[in-house]
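User: Hey, quick favor. My workstation is busy. Could you predict this chain's structure for me?
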Amino acid sequence: MSQIVSSQKDKDKKARIKTFKGFKVFCLIAIFTSTCIAISISIFTPNFKNRQKFQFPNQVSLPDWQFQSSNNLDNVLKSALKNNAIAAKKYFYVSSTKDTLQIDAVYIDGIVSLPNSLEILGLKYSSNSLNIRYLESVGYYALFVDQERAYLSSCINPYGNTTVTEDQFINNRYNATSNRIGSYLLGVTNLRDHRCLFTTISIPLENPKLVNQSTNSLAKMHQKLEKAWTNWYQNWQDDFPKS
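Assistant: No problem, here it is.
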């Protein structure tokens, strides 16, 4: 009987030793794997500071509009937001009916919202004329009138919807996704992305001498702006700057 008990104790002891060894091996594997991952991240994580800064192309195609010319907005880069503004360009277009369209694009690394971002373009708006709208699958944009032009402004983000207010921008920035993490490890973008392609599209008012434009007149101009804005957004959605 004592032999049986002694034999059982030996089996239990061997089982405990085997379990301990297995746990030790598991811990060693886990430590080794974690170390390899940490080393890989430290080696392959991109140094974004050394990247070449983005520059706008001289020409951007826009459906229904014929490209005319473009020029750099050097005054924008020298403004109060010069530390955040990376590149800025103005594009001019004309339609088959001789309508003109102007697009001011500013690539910014920082929180973007109205009216601060409009100030660097020398634009102002009345709170009564500002109209913030939302377009499904695109995001938020603002419509307003300044002097003799009708405007549409919005921020195209590298992830998520377009934004107008600071709250929208911050919420969108923290909307981390698996795509962003994967892009970060591949060196495509930062893990926490602050960048914005701030766009302002404008057309002349039909009757600039009128202080208050008619509802129908503004509605037509808004439709033109919204259509151009949708095409502009789609153009940059899959081709957002990599740095």
